[in-house]
């Protein structure tokens, strides 16, 4: 029996173990889109969410976003794929994207290390409503792509926010309402003053009546006390006695 046989067997097991342990995690990762349907209004900024599950660092890989249902340009038959955004070698390839998306797409590059390949589209228009495809061509996985449907609805009501944009038009439209509120506030203040003056007048009048009654009662009591000086007899009585 060869003495080197155990060492060869041990080395073989080490190679097998290293192969399975060091196999790339991207072989198990799949591309997923969630949600697969996004609704927005014209002018909104939307994010087409797409990621790898489980998360894998794909900073060195190429990421392609395209519109698979868009017909090829007849003036450019060689371009079969209508790209919206292409990320390659750490940056965007601008000469491959559709002109209508120039300056309006952003890839969350800082999230690529976590397997996040979501695409942000700025100021969406009705023409942006379509199905979008996220594709990672060099990903060593059975599922390298996912699709997201974007719906742009002009009648979509945006949720209200606590912040109000400082728009001169908005300020002008709010002036009549502010004036109405100011006038209503002035009328309310005037009513309050009138009520205060009326209440004060009533209180003063009641106080005067009470004082007068008290004074009259005191005077009557004084006149009715014994020994109080009486008034002079009328002159008519004196003259009547003298004539008699």
Automatic annotation (TrEMBL):
Its main location: membrane. InterPro entries: Ig-like_dom (IPR007110), Ig-like_dom_sf (IPR036179), Ig-like_fold (IPR013783), Ig_sub (IPR003599), Ig_V-set (IPR013106), IgSF_BTN/MOG (IPR050504). One of its GO terms (cellular component) is external side of plasma membrane. Keywords: Disulfide bond, Glycoprotein, Immunoglobulin domain, Membrane, Signal, Transmembrane, Transmembrane helix. It is found in: Membrane. GO terms for molecular function: signaling receptor binding. One of its GO terms (biological process) is T cell receptor signaling pathway. The chain crosses the membrane at residues 192-212. It comes from the Eukaryota. Residues 1-27 form the signal peptide. PROSITE patterns: IG_LIKE. Residues 161-182, 221-244 are annotated as: Disordered. Residues 24-149 form the Ig-like domain. The keyword Transmembrane helix applies. SUPFAM superfamilies: Immunoglobulin. It holds the Pfam family V-set. PANTHER family: BUTYROPHILIN (PTHR24100), ICOS LIGAND (PTHR24100:SF151). This is Myelin-oligodendrocyte glycoprotein-like isoform X1. It comes from Betta splendens. The gene is LOC114869181.
């Amino acid at each position: 029996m060869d003495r080197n046989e155990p060492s060869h067997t041990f080395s073989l097991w080490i190679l097998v173990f290293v192969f399975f342990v060091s196999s790339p995690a991207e072989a198990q990762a799949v591309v997923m889109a969630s949600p697969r349907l996004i609704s927005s209004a014209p002018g909104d900024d939307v994010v087409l969410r797409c990621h790898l599950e489980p998360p894998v660092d794909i900073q060195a890989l190429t990421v392609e976003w395209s519109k698979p249902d868009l017909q090829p340009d007849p003036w450019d038959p060689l371009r079969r794929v209508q790209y919206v955004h292409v990320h390659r070698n750490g940056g965007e390839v601008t000469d491959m994207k559709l002109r209508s998306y120039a300056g309006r797409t952003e890839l969350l590059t800082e999230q690529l290390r976590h397997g996040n390949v979501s695409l942000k589209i700025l100021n969406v228009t009705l023409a942006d409503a379509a199905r979008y495809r996220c594709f990672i061509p060099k990903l060593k996985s059975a599922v390298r792509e996912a699709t997201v449907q974007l719906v742009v609805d002009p009648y979509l009501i945006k949720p209200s926010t606590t912040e109000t944009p400082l728009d001169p038009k908005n300020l002008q439209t709010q002036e009549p309402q502010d004036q109405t509120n100011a006038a209503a506030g002035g009328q309310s203040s005037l009513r309050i003053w009138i009520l205060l003056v009326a209440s004060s007048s009533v209180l003063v009048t009641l106080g005067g009546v009470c004082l007068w009654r008290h004074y009259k009662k005191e005077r009557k009591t004084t006149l009715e006390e014994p020994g109080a000086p009486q008034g002079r007899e009328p002159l008519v009585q004196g003259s009547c006695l003298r004539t008699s």
